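Practice record 12: protein with 6-O-phosphono-beta-D-glucopyranose.
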Amino acid sequence: MNIAPSATPEPCVIVIFGASGDLTQRKLIPALYDLDRQGRLPERLCVLGVSRTAMSDEAFRERMLEGVKKFAASFDKAKWDSFCKRLHYHAGDSISPEIYAGLSKRINELGTQHNILRAGGMPNILFYLSVSPNLYEGIIANIGQAGLVAEGHRWCTVNAEKMPWQRIIIEKPFGTDLRTTISLNQALGRVFEEDATYRIDHYLGKELVQNILVMRFANTFFEPMWNRQYIDHVQVTAAETVGVGSRAANFYDTAGALRDMIQSHLLQVLALVAIEPPSVFDAAAIMREKIKLLNCSPTLSEQAAASAGVFGRYGPTASEPGYLQETGVDASRNTETYAAIKLMFDNWRWAGVPFFLRSGKKMAAKLTEVVVQFKKPPTNMFRHFDSAVADRPANRLIISIAPREGISLRIEGKVPGSGIKLASANLELDYLSAFGGEVIEAYGPLILDAIRGDRTLYKHRDEVEGGWRICEPFLHSPALRTGIDTYTPGSWGPNRADSLIAADAPDRQWHNP
Ligand code: BG6
């Protein structure tokens, strides 16, 4: 059942589980503060942080202030003084069912204090799971058992719009493979309806990722060429210069680059590049197209995956440890810090066009981008000039997502002067200078969407399960797991990744700026 999103964000209590954690302090509260500073939060909205650490509201605010000062887009003391009154804290172990009676009482008290109560005496509640993934199912079950999610009110036609809603935002990773993801989705489904479930992917909140569909479908000239006839291949890259550091022990060593980045963020970006035009720009239509696309990617055997993937791990330098020397790394897990894979989609538009996805830590540059490599013109009418003219590169469209935000199209032109001499040049669109505005952390707009009931930038359960179906053969391929190359920090990853992209066409190369 699809409920139309409301145009303006509605009053609510945001309950953040994992309130003493890193994500809350670095991302969530600074993002909410920025929204408030820009006047985009509803007046009647408060945040209740929940975690085990004993803390007063005051101490919680102090801790959040540190995060806001460091990570908000800008800081204004007067704005903070008014924003911080919205922040509250409740100490308790979220996996213990006993705390939920107290939590429920506190939510209702805050509902009264901030004048947010709706019909039935409950406020709208947006739960945010910012905890370790192994706690998800327990917390979801506890929320359900505590009666914090009112059942069935959607179907009561009388006063339905006055009834409070309860929604949940859940952070990645959604499971560690297909089986655990199905189990998590079932646990969610026992308590929340699918359309009250917001699986967040912060990449979908990035401006240039959102711009992909606008670019494709609000213009006439991309779409006629956006297919196997004109596109040679597509690359999606998310490279980082930082290593794994202290995240190895609690998370990364059991995840790796494929789970952490490719299965989640990069597949989403790819989906927006490759989906068919949705009938309308709304959550249901876009999700349908994404699911259709993912279903077109053939499930590979583990053997086929081994030749369609390359895994790597950064080595040590004179001054810094390699991945295997990072604290908490268990070498027997064979975790990769770099993964590159090739995917195909068996549909009318993309048959035969490879999509290459890669992501790695400690790479040469921080770079998130999509490269759409076009085919060369069918014939070269300049071939009788010098050989440099005869062999010119094909057009290439680069969608730069981060750190630069923009679009660049490489075209061929005639060099001024007598005779025919060709050279490449770029048509550039710098997003911020063209459209203005302030760069804002992706989390803010995404949370705002959840408060408005808009799931367009969130993931449906079938998308997540489809992503795992595609990625599992790579995860389980013994050849990939044991054949991990060591790459030099500051490089573009293992050399074998160059062979992967060039395997079917020697002139295919990664875009390594
Ligand atoms: C997170 C991953 O989801 O995305 C991190 O868990 C990664 O490992 C981060 O560093 C990258 O995000 P961004 O926005 O900096 O590209």
